[in-house]
Specification:
binds zinc ion; Sugar kinase; five-stranded mixed sheet; 14 helices; alpha/beta; 42% helix
Length: 395
């Protein structure tokens, strides 16, 4: 059965809902930050309460005169966030302020195809429903690890997602969950998560570089995701760093991702182990028969020179690309995120040294380059931010 999610009736109501998403507050405090007369503000707030989008929340402490009534988003508001990775799936349910009420994560191979993977996401959300975390969803956001046509809500020729090309992800999830749904790529939703609750909360212009199985970059301009004309902005994993480099999943050679995605790192780790460059990795390989990016991180943490060399090489190449991006975009912050970012300080130190050396002082003088602190929740929170931006906009 198709429900209709109630949306704000005008831009003022939409702006008030987005403010309340950052936390409930008094009518007087709202009056300080919106460009509305006190009486008009009260009309719009009363209307939001009537629509069931917001609700009264007692009285605020006095600011000298009459105590002002507090308002918050309806406590029945529930958003779902789905973060589909190459090798894992995360789902979460949040309240209207995007606080996570429940979060489930499990391994999942994107190559199983859209029907199986999206079914899994819906099953996991069903579990949160049975746990009593929601009755009805106000909206759902989903991120997938590949290029997405944002307007159509479909992946477009995603290199590591066989069977997903133009699959109707938005329609499938929207119909299954009976709520407005939006799809974006996983990197953009991570950037939105950082914007909502992470290190980028107070930064309008920043870059989020995700180094996972692949490599991508979320571009935030003036607090909004910049997607480009067709949705492929920030696809930096396929910038060529060496004409004679290894063949990439996209079919070209020498892409950044072919050197330093999770898959490339695992492959190089095997080479180093076999060539005698790392006793630690050789031992892991003998036991497990295969190596992963996590093994490289564990080896580096033990001081293994071969593993540290791999991370430095990768960090240097990421740094080269990032130095160009910093010169071009002049961001206020760069966040490094994703599974490979767990390699930590060796990686961060190498990236920083290349970027600070290669970019102009005016661009890097006040430029923090940091590791994400949100971990697995960045994607799911960002997915709920994406759909809440839509639901909290005027029709
Ligand atoms: Zn490529």
């Amino acid at each position: 059965m198709k429900r209709t999610t109630i949306r704000p009736e005008n831009v003022h109501q939409a702006a008030l809902l987005r403010l309340l998403r950052d936390g409930g507050r008094s009518r007087a405090e709202l009056g300080d930050v919106v460009d509305l007369s006190r009486s008009k503000l009260n009309v719009e707030l009363d209307r939001l309460v009537e629509l069931g989008l917001a609700e009264p929340d007692g009285l605020a402490a006095s600011r000298g005169g009459r105590r002002s009534g507090r308002v918050r988003l309806s406590q029945a508001t529930r958003f779902a966030g789905i973060d589909v990775g190459a090798t894992s799936i995360d789902v979460a349910v949040t309240d209207g302020e995007l606080k996570v009420l429940g979060h489930l994560s499990e391994p999942c191979d994107i190559r199983e195809g859209p029907a199986a993977v999206l079914d899994r996401a819906i099953d996991l959300l069903g579990k949160l429903h049975r746990d009593g975390l929601y009755d009805e969803l106000t909206g759902a956001g989903i991120g997938v690890p590949g290029p997405v046509s944002f307007a159509e809500g479909v992946p477009v020729v995603p290199p590591i997602m066989p069977g997903w090309d133009r699959y109707p992800v938005r329609e499938t999830i929207g119909q299954a969950l009976c709520c407005p749904t939006m799809v974006d790529n996983d990197v953009n939703i991570m950037a939105l998560g950082e914007l909502h609750t992470g290190l980028a909360r107070s930064v309008g212009d920043f870059l989020l570089v995700k180094i996972g199985t692949g490599i991508g970059c979320g571009i935030v301009v003036d607090g909004k995701i910049y997607r480009g004309v067709s949705g492929s902005a920030g696809d930096i994993g396929h910038i060529r760093v060496d004409d004679l480099g290894p063949v990439c999943s996209c079919g070209n050679s020498g892409c950044l991702e072919a050197y330093f995605g999770g898959a490339a790192l695992a492959r190089e780790a095997v080479e180093v182990a076999r060539s005698g460059g790392s006793p630690y990795l050789a031992e892991r390989l003998a036991v497990a028969g295969t190596l992963t990016a996590e093994d490289v991180g564990a080896a580096a943490a033990q001081g293994d020179a071969g593993a540290i060399g791999l991370i430095r090489d990768g960090g240097r190449r990421v740094g080269q690309v990032l130095a160009s991006l910093v010169s071009f975009f002049n961001p206020g912050l760069v966040i490094i995120a994703g599974g490979v970012a767990k390699l930590g300080h060796v990686l961060l130190a190498e990236i920083r040294s290349v970027v600070y050396r290669r970019s102009l002082p005016l661009a890097t003088g006040n430029l923090p380059i940091v590791l994400s602190e949100l971990g697995e929740t960045a994607g799911v929170i960002g997915a709920t931010r994406l759909i809440s931006d839509h639901v909290y906009s005027a029709n």
